[in-house]
Amino acid sequence: MAYFILVFVAFGFISQIDCNSHYDNYTLIRLHPSTVDHQKSVTEFSDPSGEIEIMKESRGVNDTLDILVPPGKMKFVHDYANTNGLKLEEKQPNYGRTLQDVSERLPRRRILDRFSVFHYNSYDNMQEFIEGKAQRYPALVQLQELGKSYQGRKMRLVKISTRPNAKNPIIFVDAGVHGREWVAPAMALYLIHRLTVDPTAFVKGGELDGVDWYILPLVNPDGYEYTRSSRSNRMWRKTRSKHGASHCYGVDGNRNYGFKWAVSGVSNDPCHKETYAGPKPFSEPETQMVRNVMMDNAKRMKLYVSLHSYGQYLVYPWGYTGDFLPKQWKKLDDMARSVSNAVERAGGRPFKVLSAGKWYPAAGGSDDYAFGAAGVPYSYTMELTEGHEFAFPEELLETVLPQFYEGFKEFGARIKAEFGRQRKKREIMDTQ
Ligand SMILES: *[C@@H]1O[C@H](CO)[C@@H](O)[C@H](O)[C@H]1NC(C)=O
Ligand SMILES: *[C@@H]1O[C@H](CO)[C@@H](O)[C@H](O)[C@H]1NC(C)=O
Ligand SMILES: [Zn+2]
């Protein structure tokens, strides 16, 4: 007996050392800007050493900047807060130790659980899921091969339509351009799930009535799988490409689009962990594939939504500048607010609706490209969830994903009302 206990203890000890993450001793800090001057100072915050990781930028007064700070940088951050009069909250010491290790948990899960849309699934499981949908509902679901990620993972667009030849308006949703934002691909899969199984989606006035849905559930599969490989990599955001002579990996896919590329809010340093824009626009195969979906379907595409986390924002162009808004901004704002209301009616939290670049300009985003280059009239970035940062608990997916789905229903209804066939007929009659 004593022998077994000893072995058990020794094993536990070893496995703890094994999964030691370099974030173990980091502290999650929130800086609270409560005036416009404060907000400016959090937007300008930067760590020359590159050791501090930015988790969430502030998008306004009273909206926090969240950063992960190594022990050696705590003084630097406290000094910055003091100098600028910012309230500093040490939200979580030993941050890395709170993260779950997927690789440890997986074998047990495989035996106990079947696939669930309320799990954080692997890339492979997601592929199996969409293949299964296409096999089971061949008249409804088409998979389009878009190409391969940098590391060679297949990327497939899921097209859901009850009448693919009816030239319906298209809603294009992508997710997971940032590896660590796990709730985003989970939402995209859930959307595919509901659109294929909900009886109400098929009836007159349902989500699929007169609207086609194109969903790319995982834009950055390489980055996503990297974040699943160990707790040390859990905070990875970029792709996993390599460019030129740099020893550093990855490009921020959401700074890589070729519209006002790199004019604001980007880094030119390949080693920058967050916002390296790449050596040129569309340097990444992943962003090229999303661009091609937009361009190939530009005429019919009426709404683009890029799913991210976190912060519970629903933001619209322009992202590259806060100096002015597109002239159609009121329509963008109205639709976003009605989506937020729908989510709230379903018991969810409202979204903070604003123009993306108002407080934190950042160029090269997919939403600006869709709106500015592809001419998609409604384009949004949706930052899902608030609280728990990127480690949104898996057991809460069952609560929040159905709430967000109500927002997507509203998107569908709005797009149909403005661009659907009924509407077109009415316009023709009006002009007769
Ligand atoms: C965290 O701090 C402990 C105690 O100071 C130290 O033993 C350990 O090596 C540190 N972990 C990492 C990953 O740096
Ligand atoms: C920010 O929060 C403070 C304190 O709650 C409040 O007085 C102020 O009006 C808020 N400012 C904005 C712009 O929301
Ligand atoms: Zn993101």
Automatic annotation (TrEMBL):
Keywords of this entry: Carboxypeptidase, Disulfide bond, Hydrolase, Metal-binding, Metalloprotease, Protease, Signal, Zinc
Source organism superkingdom: Eukaryota
Signal peptide: 1-19
GO terms under cellular component: extracellular space
Single GO BP term: proteolysis
Essential cofactor(s): Zn(2+)
GO-annotated molecular function: metallocarboxypeptidase activity; zinc ion binding
All copies of domain Peptidase M14, residue ranges: 119-415
Active site: E383 (proton donor/acceptor)
Family per similarity comment: Belongs to the peptidase M14 family.
Designated name of the protein: Carboxypeptidase B
